[in-house]
Structures are given as structure tokens and as C-alpha cells.
Amino acid sequence: MVDVDLSQPPFTLLDDAGRERVRGGVDLAYFDTQEVILDAGQPGEFVFMIHKGEVAELDPTMPAAAARIGHYTAGDLFGAISILNGKSRYRFQAEQESLCYLLPKALFQRLCDDYPAFAEFFRQSLTHKARLLTERRAEGGVTMAGFMLARIGECMREPLVVDQATSIFDAVSTLNASHADSLLVCDGECDGERFGMVTKTDLLNAVVIEGLDQQRPAIEVAHFELVTASAEQYLFEALVRMTRHEVARVVVVEEGKPVGVVELTDVLSFFSSRSYVVSLQVEQADSLDELARASARTPELVRALMAQGVKLRFAMGLLAALNGRIMAKAWGFVIDAAHRDASCLIVMGSEGRGEQILKTDQDNALILADGHAWPECEAQMREVTDTLIRLGYPPCPGNIMVSNPDWVGSVSEWRERIARWAARRDGDSLMKLAIMLDAHAVAGQTALLEQVRDELFERCRRDEILLSYFARTALRFSTPLTLFGSLKKPQHGIDIKKGGIFPIVHGVRTLALERGIRATSTLDRLDALAEDGRLEANFAEDLGEALALFTELRLRQQLERDGDGEDANRVVVQQLSSLERDLLREALHMVKDFKQRLSQRFHLEYS
Amino acid sequence: MLRALRRASDRRRHAEGEYGWLFHPYTGNEMVAIDCETTGLDTRSAELVSIAAVKVRDGRVLTSESLDLRLQRPASLNGDSIRIHGLRGIDLAGGDCVEEALDKLLDFIGNRPLMGWCLDFDITILNRHLRPRFGFDLPNALIEVSQRYVRDLRRAHPEIEPNLRFEAVAKALDVPVIGRHTALGDAVTAALMYLRLEKGAMRGD
User: Fold this and answer.
1) For residue A381, what are the β-bridge partners?
2) What is the pLDDT of residues B40-50, one digit of tens each?
3) Tens digit of each residue's pLDDT (9 = 90 or more) over A17-66
4) Is B192 within 8 Å of A28 when comparing Cβ atoms?
5) Could you say which of A2, A25, A29 has the minimum Cβ distance to residue B60?
């Protein structure tokens, strides 16, 4: 009877009969301001659904300032966990006069028994809730979500394998007979078999350009550095790899054996969207103007991907690959070929971590091989910076750019700098170390970066005092656990960059430094840390989901405000749906947990 | 006065009867909010369309223990009242006859105090149907929510002329209007208003 809103999860997990039982079984209660609705240690007798008002969740064992744990408002549920655990861990107190629906314990338990999905909702981790949210969004008229969930295995074709004796002539006839674009040549030497890729283009070049005889074995033109993937990976990842490695096909490998090939055209038949068009434009651009045009289309691509409900991790991967290609291309236009092999352009900060979706400030640096003479280097670097500005990457306010000689140096100069920073340990040096840790090579000789990075790990990872100083920065900003109770005006919102993204990114970076993990993206670092045993797999996964949630919320605001980034870090909680609020709350708790671990590990309690 | 006399004589006559227990003083901690939808506004001729009652206990509106009755289509049901309560003739198919409905209502409310919005109107109509069939009026104690509101408002802000429209009072008390012009919705809203008044919504400011 009562007009209780049951159109949100978890009630969507019930059927009509179940919802009718909820409607018929709830009571209504008013709670006055400051009235304790459910006290810590009290047995849970009801699940509370707030119809109107605000309720705070408090930990009475903590001092008043730190006691606040959560905040609930219209549409939110609380008390279910108290029922599942038998008694309430925390105190629930009305912040405003609140009208709640009360779902009695007995009915709640019967519903849990009758509807497993409903019961599961209350036991779920953050990851599951996030998936629920994605699925719900996908229902909202998003037709392409199916693509995102497609696995490589669903789209690959049988590999065309020929033996090492096959001639170029036979290879071409085989390709024609099976309407394929590429084949694998099996090289049966040693104990394991190797496989090489031969494409139509390779064969054409071999015969026409290099003038090879048609009877020569095709294996001579095969490429043995295959770009591979496994069948369980998302199809989207195949696309990311193709973009990153500039190839048009990925070999699907299982236990060292090729089991299939995914061609770019196959992926496109799944995904006839703009992402390919943009990356194609980037590849085909042969002047800076064309490159700038392609580069200007990336925000549009981001919007399209987001609207399609693409998981942020993949969208970030694709965008990072695209940005990397754009910069490498620009590098190629500006810098002489002679210098390219003796230098390495690196991007740092969020760009280095591949967590940049929209173009923000350029943070880049240059590493030169020792002894490489490049007198006009400074002038050319200024040109690089100007070119990147033209391509839509605004200059870095902190002047961390190749046009600044402080961020250009030979390998040995970089080593000295790192040693100096590590010895000084002041705020500025720590920041520079952090920036360098996230460095990712986009053009030139990537081995140079590895040499510098070796030094970085060597200097820092066993230096407990440095690590502790380094980790402390992660605790610099407090994480808001109450979503809006303490704010004067609701439109002030909460700063998810300081409260959520930064602590996770920096904390994970610290742990990666400690364990010598070379991955630069936070999500990859989390995977590596879980594998390393430094973090439990669940915790790492939840942290990753929390980060993805923060980033997504921020991105949505950035897109809405069309790049006016100043305020985009502020999330106004009242504009979120109750499920999103729920997720945000849990994600912030996750951050708090993580900070506590950090402070225990690096002994930051008293600093 | 007249009502008190009538109640005294009803009690005497029914003390040993089937409904004698209704006349006992109530000792529990529950109350019942009631509301009726009728075919008109004239208490002498209006017929009952639906009756709802919901219990109130310990500061809670027990919507899970509520009564929502529909009656058989009365002859006077016409477009004017359907516009208000939205119950068409066809919605009333299969409804209770007046006697059954009143019997269920008496059983549900027992001797608990009753409350409601403009309770007099509902009680008068109920009594008009009750007396010829059962031989007594509702003997329950009555709490008029609008009167409670006026009293509390006068005490806190004697200068304010109360606006006694149902919606205006609900807004003043910060009570959501649930299902306006359905019997159960109005009963629940009235009960919520009462709870707010009990908690001193008017005293605070």
C-alpha cells in the first residue's frame, strides 16, 4: 500500500510478489533530530529505509571528530548488516528528523531465504555492486555494452598454420584459397615450436620491393615478435594492443600454442565505432595539422566510449595508447632520425600511469644516451613542447616539460638527480621521485628509461626512512567519510581527487616502489602487488574498483562541464543515485582502510 | 454532552452483549488512525466507499497492521466524488457490504482510541451506519489531529493564523503526503502528523 520506492536495487532483485510482501510488511516511524535509531551492540530488529531525512552512522568508541563513519539519506538502506551479524556494530543517529520505513527482521530473513540474489546483495563486496551498477547502466538503452563484455574467444578465427618449408608462392595461394590476410609459419626447431606471422603486406613487399624469388621459403619474411593475447581476455584489450603496437592482428595463444587470430577487421565488425577511426587517423596523419585534427577528436571518442558503458580501465588503456601514439608521431615529425635512437621521450604523472582520459597538462622529460652529442637539443625540445601544445596538451604549470633543461639529461645525469632527490627527501624531491616513478616511454629508445628506473629502485626501495617519508604524503588529505553532513552547503560537494584518488594512487605507488614493481598504471600495480602477496587479491581488486569509481565520477563531471577542470573533482553527493552513493561510501571506506594499512606499514602513526 | 449520554446508555445496553468489550476502558499503548472515503460531504446522506484504519504503537505507524476495506457500490456514487477518491464503480466490485465492513472495522479497532483528520465527519457517517445495524455508536476515545495541531501552534505561535488545509499542515509538519484521497493514505498521513505533534514538532521552533 505505502508508496515506498522499490525501483532501486536491492528491491529490483525481488519479483512483484516479493515487492508486494515488502509493501505489505513495512511500518513507518519518525525519528527526531539526534534520536538514536539503533545503538551499537543492539540487536538489529529492522531494516530501515529512509523515506525522508538524514541518518549518520557513528562509531561510539571513537572521539567525536573521528566517530562519523557513514551517512544515509532518502532512498538509502541501513540496518541489514546488523540483522545479518546479529547486532549492530555502530550507532545510527538521526541527523535530521527522519521518516523511515521499517522492514521487520523476520520478513527480511524470509525474503533473503526466498530470493538468493536479494540476500547476496547485502553480502557483496564493492566489486559486485559496481558490476551491478554497470549492468544497470547497460540496460539504459546502451546497445554496445555487449561488445565490452565480448571475449576474444568469441571473435577469433582459426589460425592458418603452414610449415617452415612453405614457399612464398604457396603461402599466397593458401591465403587466397582461405580468404585470409595472414598466416602463421611454424618453425619446428629447438624443442619448442616457434610461430611467425606472415601478412599479405609482408609477402607483397618481399616480392615486389625486395625482389625475393617466389620459391623462397615464406619463413624468411615472417615476424616472430608476435603480439599475443589469451582467449579469455576482453575483445577490447585486443583492440588496445593493436593500437599500442601498431599492428592489425593479435595472435591468441594458449599454453604457448596459437589457437586463433583476431584481425582488426573482425574487431571492427563487432565495434564499428569511432575509436578505430581516430586511431587510424593518427596513424595516417603525415603532417602536424592532420595529427592535430585527429588529436582533437579524442574527447569525442571518450564520450562515445563512456556512453557505451565501456569499463573505465579499458577506456583508459585505449586512450593512453592513443595519446602515446600521437606524441610518438609528433616526436617523429620534429626530431631528426639520427637522435631518435639515442634519446627517450618519457611522459610522467597521470599520463605515465595511463590514467589520463582527457588531455591535461603535459608532464614529460627527455633521457639521452650517455655521450650522445646533440648541440641543438634545447631548441628542438622547445619545438616539441610547442608542438604538443598545438596538439591540445596544455603546458605544465610546474614546468615539468622537455623545454625545461632540468627535465632533460643523459642517463648519468638522471642518476645523479635521483641520488640527490633521494638524499634530500624534502617535499619537492619526493614529488619529483613520485613523478619519475610513473614515467612511461612514448618514443625513442625505451631501454634508457629502464636504466634510469633501475637506479631509482636501487636507491629507494630499501631505504626505510625514505619510504616512510614517501608514504606520508598519501595521508596528507583527509578522506571524507561522511558524505555531506558536515558541509555548510550541499553544493560544496566532496573532493574525490584529494580524498580518494590521490591516496590510492600514491599509496599504491609507494608499495610498488617498495616491492620494485615496474608497472606504471595503478591498476597494473595493484595486480602485481596482489600477485606478489603484498596485498590480498580481494583488497587489491576492491581498491581498483574504488579508484575506477572515483575516476569515473570525475570524468563524468569533466565531460559535463566540457573540460573546465577546476571544479570537476568536487562530487555533489545529492546528484548521485542512491546506489552510486552507496558505492561512493564504500569506496571511501576502502580508502580509509588502505590509509590505515599504510600508516602501520610505514610507521606513520606518530609523524 | 449528548454523545456522553448516548455512550452511557449504549454501554448499559450492550454490557453483556457480543460487543460489550468495546466499552471497556482501553489500557494498552496502541491507537488507531482511521479515514473513510465517501460519496459526498453531507454527513446525512453520504455513503461509505472505503474505510481504512492503521495502528500506531511506540511512535510507529504500523502500516503492516492495517485495514483497507472497499465497500459495495453505493447508489449515490457519482462522478463528483469519483473525481476525488478515484474509486469507480468497477473498482468496488467484490467489495464488502456495509455490515461486514463495519464488523471487520470494529474487530480491528476494538476499544483503542481513534485519531484522524476531521475525525468528526468520518465518525458521524460511521455512526449513522452503525446505529441501525448494531445499535450503538463508536464508544472509542477520539483524537482530532487538526485540533491538536491548532492547539500546539497556538501555544508556540499565538500570532499565526493556522492554515488548516490538509496539505498545508502536512507541509508545516514536514510530513510527506502519502496517497492523498485514498482512505489508507490519508489515515497514514494523519497518523504521521500525530506522531510529529507528539514529538513536539511545534514546540521546538
Assistant:
1) none
2) 888 888 888 89
3) 888 888 888 888 888 888 888 888 888 888 888 888 888 888 777 666 55
4) yes
5) A29
Report how far residue A270's alpha carbon sits from residue A253's, in angstroms, rounded to the nearest whole number. Answer: 21
Q: What is the pLDDT of residue B202?
A: 66
| pTM, to two decimals | 0.58
DSSP A400: -
Looking at domain A152-270, its CATH superfamily turns out to be CBS-domain (3.10.580.10)
Average model confidence (pLDDT) across chain B = 86
* pLDDT at site A95: 82
**Closest residue, chain A, to B58 (C-alpha):** A29
Question: Nearest CA to CA, how far is A53 from chain B (Å)?
Answer: 10
Q: DSSP 3-state assignment of A71?
A: strand
CATH numeric code, A274-460: 3.30.460.10
Residue B64 neighbours by CB under 8 Å, 6+ apart: A24, A25, A26, A27, A104
Closest listed residue to residue A118, CA positions, set A232, A22, A32, A230? A22
What residue ranges define each of the domains in chain B, with the CATH number in brackets? 2-204 (3.30.420.10)
pLDDT at A148: 56
Residue A292 one-letter amino acid: A
A109-139: pLDDT as tens digits: 898 888 888 887 777 655 565 665 555 554 4
Residues in chain B with CB shorter than 8 Å from the CB of A3 are 178-179, 185
- Residue A181 pLDDT greater than 60, yes or no: yes
Question: CA distances (Å), A507 to each of A143, A320, B54, B119, in order?
Answer: 37, 22, 55, 64
Does the pLDDT at position B124 exceed 60? yes
Residue scoring higher pLDDT (B35 or A316): B35
- Quick one: angle between helices A16-25 and A105-114, nearest 10? 170
Distance from CA of A77 to the nearest CA of B (A): 18
What homologous superfamily is domain A11-123 in, according to CATH?
Answer: Jelly Rolls (2.60.120.10)
Q: Which residues of A touch B59 (CB under 8 A)?
A: 29-30
Report whether pLDDT(B205) > 50.
no
Nearest chain A CA: its distance from B175 CA (Å):
8
Grid coordinates of A538 = 580481494
Residue type present at position B45:
S
Residue A5: other Cβ atoms inside 10 A: 12
Nearest to B195 by CA among A275, A32, A331, A289: A32
Integer Cα distance of B194 and B196 in angstroms: 5
Its ipTM equals: 0.78
